[in-house]
């Protein structure tokens, strides 16, 4: 009975039904007019869409366990770890950095616009570093390891990536004056959209969303971000607003003639959870150990993935340059 109760709680917890059930049981539908109530009502959205995605794939005989294997084991593993490690990084950053904010904002619509632009900038910085600093890539690469795109990928993260991301994003937002309650609203919107843009082709074949593809970052843009094609590598770092990708030249639309290949560029055991979760860390430790000098050991940690002490670099920047040179040639 205890096992069944635990299983029930895990299922309900995964689908985020608790908040919605609470509203229904207490007949407190006025809560839907509040930010907390909206969050509880929308909580089951992504998990339910994921279930629909799986059912459609099963119906059309396109479902294989390999497509969800890494995401499933990552979710289970992170759930286990979360029972022992709980890091309130957002709260810590707010408490520590708020006294040093350059100015204070309020909970208004115009400061919301300002806050979202700042948030996207902070997200761009965290995400860019996650691809350009090898230590941070070790935390982020798990999210890129799946060779398919579907909603389960939104749950595929190394357990320390969240705290690392929140240190950067929250600190930048707080120092630039974003009001904490406003920040939580922005994080809720961003988290919901950030999950939705992983929607797979079993539900949405063409994910450009029409005219919106020119205004915001759509699921199509995020599919490009998860691609290992040289044309697509290290692009579309923002989450909803594309302004910073435009500003820094990293915006890339999906090309009809360039089919997306998902995954990471190094040889990897297909569908292997341990390789997806610990593979990059293992390779980094190996490179650091074998590096001939102390300087090289440090550089392996902080230089981009693909950097090599011999000078035979295979970074994304070099791979992309070789690709464009070959196209021109």
Low-confidence stretches: none
Report the radius of gyration as a whole number of Å.
21 Å
The largest β sheet comes out as: none
What's the tally of helices? 15
- The helix content is 55-70%
Number-wise, the strands total 0
Secondary structure class reads mainly alpha
Q: What is the string of helix and strand elements?
A: HHHHHHHHHHHHHHH
Mean pLDDT: 87
**Strand content bin:** under 5%
Domain count: 2
Distance between the termini: 68 Å
Shape: globular
How does this model look, in words?
By secondary structure, the protein is mainly alpha-helical. It folds into 2 domains: 88-288, no CATH class; 289-328, no CATH class. The protein has 15 helices and no strands. Helix 2 (17-26) packs across helix 3 (35-42), helix 6 (89-97) packs parallel to helix 9 (161-175) and helix 8 runs antiparallel to helix 13. The longest helix has 24 residues, at 109-132. The termini are far apart. The model has no long low-confidence stretch (mean pLDDT 87).
What layout of secondary structure does this protein have?
Layout: H1 2-14, H2 17-26, H3 35-42, H4 45-59, H5 66-82, H6 89-97, H7 109-132, H8 134-144, H9 161-175, H10 180-196, H11 219-225, H12 243-248, H13 273-290, H14 294-302, H15 316-328
Helix pairs in contact: 2-3, 6-9, 7-8, 7-9, 7-10, 8-13, 13-14
């Amino acid at each position: 009975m205890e096992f069944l109760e635990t299983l029930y709680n895990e299922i309900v917890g995964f689908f985020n039904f608790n908040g919605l059930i609470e509203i229904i049981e207490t007949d407190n539908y006025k809560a839907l007019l509040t930010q907390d109530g909206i969050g509880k009502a929308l909580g089951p959205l992504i998990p339910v869409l994921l279930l629909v995605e799986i059912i459609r794939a099963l119906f059309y005989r396109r479902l294989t366990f390999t497509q969800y294997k890494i995401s499933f084991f990552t979710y289970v593993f992170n759930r286990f770890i979360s029972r022992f490690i709980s890091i309130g990084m957002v709260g810590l950053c707010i408490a520590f950095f708020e006294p040093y904010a350059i100015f204070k904002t309020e909970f208004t619509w115009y400061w919301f616009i300002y806050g979202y632009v700042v948030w996207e900038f902070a997200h761009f910085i965290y995400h860019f570093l996650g691809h350009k600093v090898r230590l941070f890539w070790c935390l982020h690469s798990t999210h890129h390891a799946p060779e398919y795109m579907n909603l389960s990928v939104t749950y595929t993260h190394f357990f320390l990536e969240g705290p690392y991301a929140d240190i950067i994003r929250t600190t930048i937002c707080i120092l630039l004056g974003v009001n904490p309650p406003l920040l939580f609203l922005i994080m809720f919107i961003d988290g919901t959209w950030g999950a939705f843009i992983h929607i797979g082709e079993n539900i949405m074949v063409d994910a450009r969303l029409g005219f919106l593809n020119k205004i915001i970052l759509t699921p199509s843009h995020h599919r490009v971000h998860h691609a290992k094609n040289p044309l697509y590598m290290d692009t579309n770092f923002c989450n909803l607003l594309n302004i910073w990708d435009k500003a820094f030249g990293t915006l890339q639309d999906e090309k009809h003639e360039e089919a997306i290949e998902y995954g990471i560029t190094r040889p990897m055991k297909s569908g292997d959870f341990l390789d997806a979760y610990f593979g990059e860390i293992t390779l980094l430790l190996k490179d650091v150990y074998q590096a001939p000098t102390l300087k090289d050991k440090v550089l392996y940690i902080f230089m981009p993935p693909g950097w090599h002490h011999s000078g035979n670099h295979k970074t994304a920047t070099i791979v992309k340059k070789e690709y464009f040179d070959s196209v021109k040639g």
